[in-house]
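[INFO] parsing input record for RCK C-terminal domain-containing protein
[DEBUG] input buffer:
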Amino acid sequence: MFQRFKNFRKLRKWYVVKLKLVDARLYFVSIFVGLLTGLVAVPYHYCLYYFFNLRSEFFASRPEWYWHIPLFLFFWAVLIFVSWLVMKMPLITGGGIPQTRAAINGRITYKHPFIELVSKFFGGILSVSAGLSLGREGPSVQIGSYVGCLVARWTRILRGERKQLLAAGAGAGLAAAFAAPLASSLLVIESIERFDAPKTAITTLLAGVVAGAVASMVFPVNSYHLIQVAEPGFSFGIQVKYFLLLAVIISVCGKLYSMMMVSFKRVYATVKSSVYMKMFYLLLVAYIISFMQVNLTGGGEQFLLEQAQSGSHAPIMWVTAMMLLHFGFSVICVSSGLPGGSFIPTLVTGGLLGQIVGLLGVEYGVIEPENVSYVMLISMSAFLVAVIRTPLTAIVLITEITGHFEVFYPSVVVGGLTYYFTELLQIRPFNVTLYEDMINTPAFQEQTRYKLSIEVMTGSYMDGKLVDELSLPENCTIINVHRDGKDAKPPGIRLIPGDQVDIELDAQDIEKLYEPLVSLANIY
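[DEBUG] output buffer:
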């Protein structure tokens, strides 16, 4: 008996060393994922800007009326084609963050990742180029997860480590979209993987840094860095009141924003109308807005940057009208289900809301005109907190992409207050709502049992335990242990670090049991 225990300790010590070598390989592969994601997502970002500028120049040139007819028909055909792609490949719909989370959790499997990646790439470019108010961040995240899936297949990575490559690719996608590697890693932890494992954080950060470096080479000038920020010189008491008021306004508006987005998306799906007519009306709205203010289309980011750089004396009523117009247009575009995210439209709405509050502060003598952009940046991060409920991501992202650290501490204060008020108002995170709507569809309800693969870490609860001794939640069963490239039947096996354990459970319980089951094999 003692000899068996001694042999097990020697075996365990060897597997701990081997596990460290495997981890090193995983980190190297994650760097490769970041590079590939950057080489795909950065051209995606570049194409969006290129075609948006072409479209803007066309409307700015005031061509003869008859030139608009073929262009309108062309964009109509484009949107119909993209709708057909979404119908054939439902996973490319919308932003892609809920689908990425489902893929990491194992709820869905990318059966044709390369074809879906190409469809998401061109579908997103075509949708935004037609003038729809959609963002680039969600598609970039999903494109990264497709790259992670492909690399996992090519490198034959361990099953329990596939989610790390999917998460690394997702974070690299956001880093490529904003050149913000730190915020991208936080987004994965807060909104996608939702389990603070150091291995996931490290792989995501490594991939994000590489993808962000690729983005910085292609876009050496960050437009957000051109925003000039001047910190107000008001007293502490006035500062507290102003920030408290700003948090209340953002929370209430965030509640309305979330309700409208979710409600309209559900109503849109029930509208008895052909795809042709839906796309016709959607494009018609985009075209009318393009005649009025072309920078409000394509997500509205250019309009936001324009206001942040030179909108300190804009009329309040005009900014309010533009914000409401952009918001209504974004609701329709996001509800359509075409490839494109809601992150940029949310950011724009939050920034314009901050501009309105800033201009009101100027009117009542609380702040100076040069302080309006300061309030806008704080409002952008706080509004993301209200709608998406990722406080760390929102605060770090705004600080990282603008380079203005003077807005970091006010963003923490206003973001923290906003998070508290959104709890009182019971605002559900938008991406969580989309995720739950997705898994409650008939296709997901047909799933009865689900297999979760986890990796045993050194010093965890499972480390050194016999499979027969483990106490798992109800209806959870260990069906396989993968060690040294071989599968083994669980009874009688004593687990050691590096073992890949397959647990079968009821499909409807995965969202509740994912973190508890992973924590059994994890020490963090």
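[INFO] The longest strand covers residues 449-455.
[INFO] shutting down worker
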